[in-house]
Amino acid sequence: MQKPIRPALAVATALAAAAVCAAPTASATARGGDEHPRGGHHAVFVQTDDPAGNRIIAYRRADDGQLTQAGSYDTHGLGGVLAGSVADHLASQGSLTYDPRHALLYAVNAGSDTLSVFAVDGDRVDLRQVVGSGGRFPVSVAVHDDTVYVLNALDGGSVQGYTVHDGRLDERADRHRCLGLDPDATPQFTNTPGQVGFTGDGSQLVVTTKANGSNLLVFNLDRSGSPADSPVVTNLPGAVPFAFVPNGRHGIFLAEAGTNAVATFAVHPDGTASQEAIAATGQSATCWIVAVRDLLYASNAGSSTLSGFRTADHGRRLTALGNTPTDPGTVDAAVSSDGHYLYAQTGVNGIVDEFAVNEDGSLTPLGSRTVPGGAGGEGIVAF
Question: pTM, whole model, 2 decimals?
Fold first, then answer.
């Protein structure tokens, strides 16, 4: 177990970050109508992250779990590529995020420093708005109730907060926080932050730093959703914390790229975090994670596999279920709303692999779909 600490970030790093961590940028012109949509169902949305023009590819999900392309939508922004990346150009989780309360889809445009907001209706989306991300190279989005945060990866990293009003985002200048990471650490794709997300009860905002400190950063939030001035830091030497999903109200399941393992952490009211369980995947580049019922699936980009785990005792026990092959470069994944199907992005050739989730936790391959312009892309949402 790693002992949580609360150190001040290094002075030199903080000064470097302060010099380049810009103030929030102005929002772009809103688009689209004012009608509230019904939300997504029987659909999968995939983000291409194409530097020539980011798009959302929509798929209709059949009752047997197989996908048929239903549409292609311009985000009015550009994708981006971190230096050193191959299969995972954003090196993050949560670059495409669904907001069930408002039936909105949020997509990062890393190459444009913007965030696109789509209204969702079935397997269709409609662009409502494009807003500035408040920093450089946005890679991850999180939502809880009426509060949204985007994570910017470059210039030392930052988070920018918004509130949702009438199907659009209102940028909040008072919810911008610099992370103070080393902006010059290389290679970029392992030294940029990996994800922003809420604990299950929405009271804390969590950021992973990957190799740039190998830390969990936790911002305590007030009742309005505004963050503390600085995060509480829990150092995890060698872990390279990458992606996570909530575990109950006050915990997370974390994918660790450094140890190639899945770990359970409790996040305490003071913002510190402590490890409760860990299980190795035995694979390479364990970076992404998705949950369904009492099951977890970790994506191993280097091994091109999905590792399954069953959880028990509130996550304090993790039982390995084996590995399932995918197409090359397994990255982000999503599970259908009924929990029956899992869809895994594979970045080398831009392919989405389709699987049935069996009761014993095993995965049955159903087929695959090549995403137009999707090589290296990340970001997937399923219904």
Answer: 0.92
